[in-house]
From TrEMBL:
InterPro entries membership: PA_dom_sf, PA_domain, Peptidase_S8/S53_dom, Peptidase_S8/S53_dom_sf, Peptidase_S8_Ser-AS, Peptidase_S8_subtilisin-rel, Peptidases_S8_3, S8pro/Inhibitor_I9
Protein name: Subtilisin-like protease SBT1.6
Keywords tagged on the record: Glycoprotein, Hydrolase, Protease, Serine protease, Signal
Classification of source organism: Eukaryota, Viridiplantae, Streptophyta, Embryophyta, Tracheophyta
Family per similarity comment: Belongs to the peptidase S8 family.
Length: 775
């Protein structure tokens, strides 16, 4: 049946349809949740609402979970596959897709973005006080000081949202800072039904309300818009003044993800619908596919919901995913989404493993308990004999007779890093050395372990294992050093940050940019300890986390500041300002490096660069994109008008001559050449820039051509006046396969930069040239 459905759902079948659904289907069939995209314009006038239509002609009211009428037209329902396949033939149904589970992409960072108290974007935007950020995550712990409304003005009059009550969440939990809160559980609960893929919501550890039992949502919300002017730390680590990127922005929380069980598309789509109706200006969604598969946009509810939001002027920031440094691991690929990777900041939490032979191996730790104080302990590596569960320190895999009173080496992978420490502790170990494998390279993140622990990179991990295997009585201790500021180089692209190229449409560079996402301090729930483990009894107001989940809300907060300073800018204009002013060098003025390899990075790693808000406020020129441009792009990638309508809601007429997808007015340029094409071969791209700086301005093009590639720009000079505010130009890229030396990702890189006469504005766009084998 699954194979049958795969033929139904991507295709839009328009057949004659009887409104009388067959009386019965096999009782043995599994019921699943399906999302139906319906052409709302075909609703018969006899039905007063779309809900009446859906429940009369498509499914019983008890089967309907959500109806969608803003970013998406249609409904979700729990049905058998036979019923869903039958409805796919309805002439009003444009597409059907099965509900899918998503995963979360788990106080110096504002300064590291170039924000200062006395001048610049913070002051020019009044810290974002008139902008509303909607956070799609695990909810919020509203009592945290980060969500105080002290000295905030009234809630913006345009706000139409609600403060939904539930378990341990009442109306007064909202205020002038946290102005709205909702929770969405119907898709989750349906998936937890008989034979469903997940367990139900455990209300002994979870709240049926917007209250956050996980911590992730509280962390991301306070990163984007937490209040400032009070001291914060996590057990003494990262001490400083707590502040979000947009401290006065208003927050609306949409709980779509649930503790230990992820997030479902049907609920996420309902949150998009609600958030746009409520009146948010920015949506922050640190969620992505948990299976590493990127669906076409017309089968991706996050892409569809985001388009509905962006087409109404709402900026949508999304996390790139944590499957780096693997090539083509980036997710959330739609060109209307801003896709954010992660970098380090200039703060670290160093710790050393001191071996019995005197060597010090450098790592990181956030352990806050009783230290080992230099005492040497025996070291054991359970994986020495090749037992995989033991080497990974999986639950019940360690023999207490072997590890008691010893420091245990655990390999990274399979189970959570903090859970490995708990396994060691329960088996009687006194400490843990967490060793990266080759896939993680040298990338390290700190964790608030429950016993003395230190994370080591791949090389250092191999060194300690070699020491244990070659020494008759190996010993070690762990020396935790606390917080160190002023780390160089920084930023460094995080090893886990997902990488390009774009697996759906390589003509669009993804990720778009990177932002701080390693060891980020932000508010935390009171429902669980800093490890997130149910067995962790500790309580903390703040926690330190890493992931592109942490990078995404930095960009969401930045968008709020830019929206407040430039209320007439579109989402595409805001993204352009961020991308074209992003930094590509670190704090030593050298090219950014890759944490995983120590080698220089490329736009496949960092997109346009690292977010730099000091410059983004005044970018000089922007690359704007209209709804019509996105529709043309969808036609260009081969979608027929019905498929385009699945995404855009309105009927579209595609041009007779198929346009080129690379001509979308994106702030980056990606040229794809076939390995079978004649050499040399050329492609010409069109771009249009809008002057948002001084009315009279002249910009000159500076070209940094990729190796083996010729790049020409016409015209080379752009002259703007009070009358001439937009100018188009052409970029011709010529590649000779005989002289093209591609990197490991199969590409070469360059840039096009527009600078004005006094170099006040530097508007940079990365250029990517790659070769693809013909299909």
């Amino acid at each position: 049946m699954a194979a049958l459905l795969s033929g139904f759902f991507p295709l839009l079948v328009l057949l004659s349809f009887s409104s009388h659904f067959p009386e019965s289907f096999s009782a043995e069939e599994t019921v699943k949740t399906f999302i139906f995209r319906v052409d709302s314009q075909l609703k018969p006038s006899i039905f007063p609402t779309h809900y009446h239509w859906y429940t009369s002609e498509f499914a019983d009211p008890t089967r309907i979970l959500h109806t969608y009428d803003t970013v998406f037209h249609g409904f979700s329902a729990t049905l058998t596959e036979t019923h869903a396949a039958f409805l796919a033939n309805h002439p009003s149904v444009l597409a059907v897709f099965e509900d899918r589970r998503r995963e979360l992409h788990t106080t110096r960072s504002p300064q590291f973005l170039g924000l200062r108290n006395q001048h610049g974007l913070w002051s020019d935007s009044d810290y974002g006080s008139d902008v509303i950020i909607g956070v799609f995550d695990t909810g919020v712990w509203p009592e945290r000081r980060s969500f105080s409304d002290t000295n905030l003005g009234p809630v913006p009059a345009r706000w139409k949202g609600v403060c939904q009550t539930g378990a341990r969440f009442v109306a007064k939990n909202c205020n002038r800072k946290l102005i709205g809160a909702r929770f969405f559980s119907k898709g989750h609960e349906a998936a937890a039904g008989p034979g469903g893929p997940i367990a139900g919501i455990n209300q002994t550890v979870e709240f049926m309300s917007p209250r956050d039992a996980d911590g992730h949502g509280t962390h991301t919300a306070s990163t984007a818009a937490g209040r400032h002017a009070f001291r914060a730390s996590m057990g003494g680590y990262a001490a400083g003044i707590a502040k979000g990127v947009a401290p006065k922005a208003r927050l609306a929380v949409y709980k779509v993800c649930w503790k230990n069980s992820g997030c479902f598309d049907s609920d996420i789509l309902a949150a998009f619908d609600a958030a746009v109706n409520d009146g948010v200006d920015v949506i922050s969604i640190s969620v992505g596919g948990g299976d590493g598969i990127s669906s076409p946009y017309y089968l991706d509810p996050i892409a569809i919901g985001a388009y509905g939001a962006v087409s109404r002027g709402v900026f949508v920031s999304s996390s790139a995913g944590n499957d780096g440094p693997n090539i083509m691991s980036v997710t959330n690929l739609a060109p209307w989404l801003v896709t954010v990777g992660a970098g380090t900041i200039d703060r670290n939490f160093p710790a050393d493993v001191v071996l019995g032979d005197g060597r010090r191996l450098n790592g990181v730790s956030l352990y806050t308990g009783v230290q080992l104080k230099g005492k040497m302990y025996p070291v054991v590596y359970p994986g020495k004999s090749g037992e995989l569960p033991a080497s990974l320190c999986m639950e019940n895999s360690l023999d207490p007779n072997v590890v008691k009173g010893k420091i245990v080496i655990c390999d990274r992978g399979s189970n959570p890093r903090v859970a490995k420490g708990m396994v060691v502790k329960e088996a009687g170990g006194v400490g843990m050395i967490l060793a990266n494998g080759a896939s993680n390279g040298e990338g390290l993140v700190g964790d608030a372990h429950l016993l003395p622990a230190c994370a080591l990179g791949s090389d250092e991990g191999d060194a300690v294992k070699k020491y244990v295997s070659s020494s008759p009585n190996p010993t070690a201790t762990i020396d935790v050093k606390g917080t160190v500021i002023g780390i160089k180089p920084a930023p460094v692209v995080a090893s886990f940050s997902a990488r390009g190229p774009n697996g759906l449409n390589p003509e669009i560079l993804k990720p778009d940019l990177i932002a701080p996402g390693v060891n980020i301090l932000a508010a935390w729930t009171d429902a669980v300890g800093p490890t997130g483990l149910d067995s962790d009894p500790r309580k903390t107001e703040f926690n330190i986390l890493s992931g592109t989940s942490m990078a995404c809300p930095h960009v969401s907060g930045a968008a709020a500041l830019l929206k407040s300073a430039h209320p007439d800018w579109s989402p595409a204009a805001i993204r352009s300002a961020m991308m074209t002013t992003a930094s590509i060098t670190d704090n030593t003025n050298q090219p950014m490096i890759d944490e995983a390899t120590g080698k220089p990075t490329t736009p496949y790693d960092f997109g346009a660069g690292h977010l730099n808000l000091d410059r983004a406020m005044d970018p000089g020129l922007i690359y704007d994109i209209t709804n019509s441009d996105y529709e043309t792009f969808l036609c260009a990638i081969g979608y027929n008008p019905k498929l385009v309508q699945v995404v855009t809601r309105s009927p579209v007429v595609c041009p007779m001559k198929r346009p080129l997808p690379e001509n979308l007015n994106y702030p980056s340029i990606a040229a794809l050449f076939s390995t079978a094409s004649r050499s040399p071969s050329s492609k010409t791209f069109t771009r249009t820039v809008t002057n948002v700086g001084q009315a009279n301005a002249v910009y000159i093009a500076k070209i940094e051509a990729p190796r083996g590639v010729t790049v020409t720009v016409k015209p080379m000079k752009l002259v703007f006046t009070p009358v001439v505010k937009k100018i188009s130009f052409f970029v011709t890229i010529t590649a000779d396969s005989k002289h093209l030396v591609l990197d490991d990702a199969g590409a070469v890189f360059g840039s096009l930069t527009w600078t004005d006469e006094n170099n006040k504005h530097v508007v940079r766009s990365p250029i990517v040239v790659t070769q693809l084998d013909p299909l």
